């Protein structure tokens, strides 16, 4: 078992589940396995956090609490045998996604999130698969159906991990894709990475009208607004509106569609690199 270092309040913050509910899951379903300090305080491990995240994902899929807890416990028990790295388990996920095997992909995803941090799963399993899938699609070796199936399943599971990511007392980030941009997986990953860094995240998703984004920003007063796009054209088309919004608040541009010239014209700041690097570059 990994070293137990988390107090229940920190586990609640990181997992997005209240301390009262965590105690209930521990008491009713044996989901958590805390150790005790000499003073009698409970401490929780990375395995405990992984089981909580896995249970949340199963609950989001409509399973009963008892069944969700059973699957979460089994996933932790079976994951990463003999100290396997995330890449060792990623192959099962990739194979299932390529084969349109929903049940297999769900089980493989469960094993990954039960054994490793969200960032490790994203870095070692999800982002490499998405890059390879994009290359294969470009070369004609992957079908549109494969791309839709894989991205749809991964999007749903990542959003399951994101439930409650607006809780807490940290700074707030408002995330959206501009009008015409329908691919938001990278933005979801960026949001998860921000959540793990203590941010509260409000996510508007793909194809968001700039006036809608601006209205939400006026209501929420976020510390930063992040616009992400795979393609450059949606950002260029919204450049004037982005500049108006950036005149009164901090606006950041992310994704392959953003570049330094466009960010400067739109009075925004550019976030470089992939979604994990971009999250690390968001100013606190």
Structural write-up:
The protein is of the alpha/beta class. Among the domains are: 79-161, Orthogonal Bundle (Methyltransferase, Methionine Synthase (B12-binding Domains), Chain A, domain 1); 172-280, 3-Layer(aba) Sandwich (Rossmann fold). It is built from 14 helices and 7 strands. A 5-stranded parallel beta sheet has the order 4-3-5-6-7, sandwiched between helices. Strand 6 (251-254), helix 13 and strand 7 form a beta-alpha-beta unit. The longest helix has 21 residues, at 118-138. The model has no long low-confidence stretch (mean pLDDT 90).
Describe the structure concisely.
This protein is of the alpha/beta class and 284 residues long.
Strand order of the largest sheet: 4-3-5-6-7
Give the CATH H-level superfamily of the domain at 172-280. Answer: Cobalamin-binding domain
Helix- and strand-based class?
alpha/beta
CATH class of the domain at 172-280: Alpha Beta
Instruction: Supply the CATH architecture of the domain at 172-280.
Output: 3-Layer(aba) Sandwich
Rounded to an integer, what's the Rg over CA atoms? Answer: 20 Å
**Head-to-tail CA distance between termini:** 33 Å
What are the segments in which pLDDT stays under 50 over at least 5 consecutive residues?
Answer: none
Largest sheet: 5 strands, parallel
In the CATH scheme, what's the topology name of the domain at 172-280? Answer: Rossmann fold
Oligomer: single chain
Beta-strand percentage range: 5-15%
Mean pLDDT: 90
Choose one word for the global shape. globular
- The beta-strand count equals 7
Fraction of residues in helix:
55-70%
Order of helices and strands: HHEEHHHHHHEHEHEHHEHEH
Q: How many H/I helices? A: 14
């Amino acid at each position: 078992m990994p070293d137990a270092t988390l107090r229940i309040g920190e586990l609640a913050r990181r997992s997005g589940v209240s301390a009262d509910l965590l105690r209930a899951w521990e008491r009713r379903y044996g989901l958590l396995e805390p150790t005790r300090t000499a003073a009698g305080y409970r401490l929780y491990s990375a395995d405990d956090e992984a089981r909580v995240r896995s249970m949340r994902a199963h609950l989001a899929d409509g399973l009963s609490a008892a069944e969700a807890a059973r699957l979460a416990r089994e996933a932790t028990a079976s994951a990463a045998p003999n100290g396997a790295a995330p890449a060792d388990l990623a192959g099962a996920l990739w194979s299932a996604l390529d084969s349109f095997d929903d049940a297999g992909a769900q089980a493989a995803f469960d094993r990954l999130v039960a054994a490793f941090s969200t960032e490790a799963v994203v870095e070692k399993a999800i982002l490499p698969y998405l890059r390879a899938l994009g290359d294969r699609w470009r070369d004609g070796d992957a079908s549109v159906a494969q791309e839709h199936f894989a991205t749809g399943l991964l999007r749903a599971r990542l959003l399951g991990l994101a439930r409650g990511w607006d809780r807490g007392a940290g700074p707030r980030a408002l995330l959206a894709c501009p009008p015409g941009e329908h691919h938001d997986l990278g933005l979801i990953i960026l949001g998860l990475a921000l959540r793990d860094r203590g941010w509260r995240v409000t996510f508007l998703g793909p194809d968001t009208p700039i006036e809608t984004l601006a209205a939400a920003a006026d209501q929420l007063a976020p510390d930063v607004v992040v616009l992400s796009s795979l393609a450059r054209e949606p950002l260029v088309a919204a450049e004037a509106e982005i500049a108006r919004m950036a005149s009164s608040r901090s606006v950041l541009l992310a994704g392959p569609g953003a570049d330094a010239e466009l960010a400067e014209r739109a009075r925004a700041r550019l976030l470089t690199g992939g979604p994990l690097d971009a999250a690390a570059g968001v100013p606190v």
